[in-house]
From TrEMBL:
Organism lineage: Bacteria, Pseudomonadati, Pseudomonadota, Gammaproteobacteria, Vibrionales
Protein name: AAA family ATPase
InterPro entries named among the record's database cross-references: AAA+_ATPase (IPR003593), P-loop_NTPase (IPR027417)
Domain AAA+ ATPase: 172-363
SUPFAM superfamilies: P-loop containing nucleoside triphosphate hydrolases
Length: 449
């Protein structure tokens, strides 16, 4: 059954790209096997004993009519028990004050369900529903404009050149390679790409496919704007399916800690919940592979993992039961590296990247403007003689005008004046002290490591 959407009036600051997924009112519309919902309910009652229908409705993300049907089925199987609130008044005889708990047989069933899958949370959506929503939220269907990218890079010094490059790159949906020496602002600019994507997206808490529940929404990677609970309406047409959350577009960044396991369905021994791979969590958003070349896994192996997704815009991975899952690969994939392009991959791979953008030092004018902005933000005065001394230090030491330097040196200068309890002025002396502790003795050409 096709996913049905509904028109919801959201705040203009969180306007989604698509209509909201409609509240399912039948088991057929849920598109998940009844046994999966039964087992999820048993686990909820094991974790939250003696819950009422209202509480269970919030926990499982389905409407109360379906929750009541699930409970009725479990009661017929003698898996749950019904508890009436003590001493009810005539006003407390409604179903909302009846509580449900597991019977002895239900506890055994719940233990069995937990042993197979420890997921707790709103009911999963089907893989078919997930795929359809992800495709409909493709950023290429809602192209960004020059104004969007200009606003996103408004505080990036020397952004004029980048606007002309990044705008078409993001609209293309193709992978990006951001390369250049350390400190040139590659990662910072990559994280600002998300600010140009001026719409929110629906992300499911979990997806069910081929007998498995895969958890997708992560509070580490997703910022929820609306979980559906804010609507006070009892009319289904004025609500959206609470198995989904309206979120900012995902912005996931990983660096040297990246392993191949993070790109597959996996779980930790502690939680026993199967987690979606990073690229699935990043769908409809941005995935940044930072410091490419510093991962424990080889660059060749890591890059080869992306060839099929980049070429065909879908990805496949193996599920816990050995089945395979195919999902859309609809995200902006950005690689950030200090390596030269020819050192990270063969021509066939570089061709698939599409956009390769080099980052370098700032012009002197942009560099000094950035210094003024940073010092102003920190409440530091920056006299003219200090600027002259700064430029002289760069010339004497052969250090280029990298955008990381003002923020770092101003921060150290601020530490110095705070310690000395002196005026908030970056004097030539303070700047020299900051310079000496920031740069290594033999550093040249911008190295600060």
């Amino acid at each position: 059954m096709a996913q049905v959407m509904t028109e919801i009036n959201f705040d203009s600051k969180q306007m989604p790209q698509i209509k909201a997924p409609r509240v399912p009112t039948t088991f057929e519309e849920i598109e998940v096997p009844r046994v999966v919902l039964d087992n999820l309910m048993l686990k909820q009652l094991a974790a939250y004993p003696k819950s009422d229908v209202l509480e269970l409705t919030k926990l499982i993300g389905l409407n109360s009519h379906i929750v009541e049907e699930i409970l009725a089925g479990l009661k017929r199987k003698s898996l749950i028990e019904v508890f009436q609130a003590d001493g009810p008044s005539p006003m407390q005889k409604g179903l909302g004050h009846i509580r449900f708990g597991l019977s002895e047989a239900g506890s055994l069933e719940a233990d069995e369900a937990f042993s197979k899958d420890a997921y707790l949370g709103p009911a999963p959506v089907s893989a078919e529903q997930y795929n359809k929503v992800v495709v409909s939220q493709d950023v290429r269907l809602n192209l960004i404009s020059r104004d969007d990218i200009t606003k996103a890079l408004c505080d990036v010094s020397g952004s004029e050149r980048l606007i002309d490059l990044l705008g078409p790159a993001v609209n293309s949906g193709r992978a990006l390679l951001l390369y250049g020496e350390a400190g040139t602002g590659k990662t910072y600019v990559a994280t600002r790409i998300l600010d140009s994507l001026n719409s929110s997206v629906f992300v499911p808490y979990a997806v069910y496919t081929a007998g498995n529940i895969v958890k997708v929404l992560s509070h580490q990677h997703h910022k929820i704007l609306d979980d559906g609970a804010s609507s006070g309406s009892l009319i289904f047409e004025e609500q959206f399916d609470r198995r989904w959350a309206l979120c900012h577009r995902p912005n996931i960044q990983v660096g040297g800690e990246l392993t191949m396991d993070m790109l597959e369905v996996n779980h930790c021994d502690h939680s026993r919940v199967w987690m979606a791979p990073l690229q699935m969590m990043a769908n409809n958003g941005v995935l940044i592979i930072d410091d490419l070349g510093r991962q424990a896994v080889s660059v060749d192996r890591l890059l080869n993992r992306w060839i099929v997704p980049m070429e065909h815009r879908f990805d496949q991975f193996v599920l816990p039961n050995g089945q395979q899952m195919s999902i859309p690969f609809i995200l902006t994939l950005a690689f950030s590296t200090n390596l030269a392009p020819e050192d990270i991959g063969d021509p066939a791979f570089l061709r698939r990247l599409g956009y390769k953008i080099e980052f370098g030092p700032l012009t002197e004018a942009d560099y000094l403007e950035l210094w003024s902005m940073v010092c102003s933000d920190k409440g530091l005065d920056l006299p003219e003689d200090t600027l002259e001394h700064l430029l002289a230090l760069h010339k004497q030491r052969g250090v280029s005008y990298y955008p990381c330097v003002p923020k770092d040196l101003a921060g150290i200068s601020n530490d110095i004046v705070a310690f000395e309890q002196s005026e908030n002025i970056v004097t030539p002396t303070v700047l020299s002290r900051a310079w000496e502790v920031y740069f290594t003795a033999g550093s040249k050409g911008g190295s600060t490591k």
